[in-house]
Amino acid sequence: MEKNVVVAEIEEIDWGGSRAEDGDTVNKTKTLSSNVHDGLPNPLTDPVKCSFIKGDYLYFHYGCDGQDDRGWGCGYRTVQMMASWLCRNYFPFKDKHRAPPSLHEMQQALVTMGDKPASFSCSREWIGTFEASLILDCYYNVPCKLVHVRGGGAELEHVAVEELHRHFEKHGSPVMMGGDRDNSSKGILGVCTGDNGSYLLVVDPHYYGGPLEKTELQKRGWVAWKRVSSLDQSSFYNLCMPQTANKGT
Questions:
Q1: pTM of the prediction?
Q2: Percentage of the chain lying above the pLDDT 90 cut
Q3: 192 a catalytic residue
Q4: Which family is it part of (predicted)?
């Protein structure tokens, strides 16, 4: 596995003061785990090709900032993970203390730009890869490539896998993945291909609870390699890929 520079495993993040969002009080500072895939063995002993993200990020998940967003917030949490990568690795946002936007701030941004009605703000409505691309462009001036994979089977195995290999080799940024029947947002941090199929390195934002060390997250399956053929073969999938090549320092 490609070695990343590892920052502190548990890191504090400053949200810039207390907020009351969705009826819940958000504490000013929360601790988040970082680089949670580090040390996870490759799924294949003799892979044909493996590609990974490059750089540091924080693991965002349900309730990590004090807001209980179980059942609807997975897309926002994946965007926050992607934003944390941009804050640490993408010029001019290489400031690890810069907090990614909160759930409410992302909702309000989508309302302000005209993508969502006013009722969307402070709601429990989820977002997908298209909204993720709008948010990252709005906050970080980073365009995203959206790839639509019509279904499972051969198209998912070949189209998505090849797109991911190219993306990680050129851009090195985390990817958001979601679909229709399989509508759970996933962070994709790597792809490993062998003679008999490929695996995706998935960071799952659906964990709810206090900060866990990376070894425990891996043990519980919140960070894991998932065989592409194990994904819902009847679902379409979309990929949101931040285009960050040649923009860093």
A1: 0.88
A2: 72
A3: no
A4: Belongs to the peptidase C78 family.
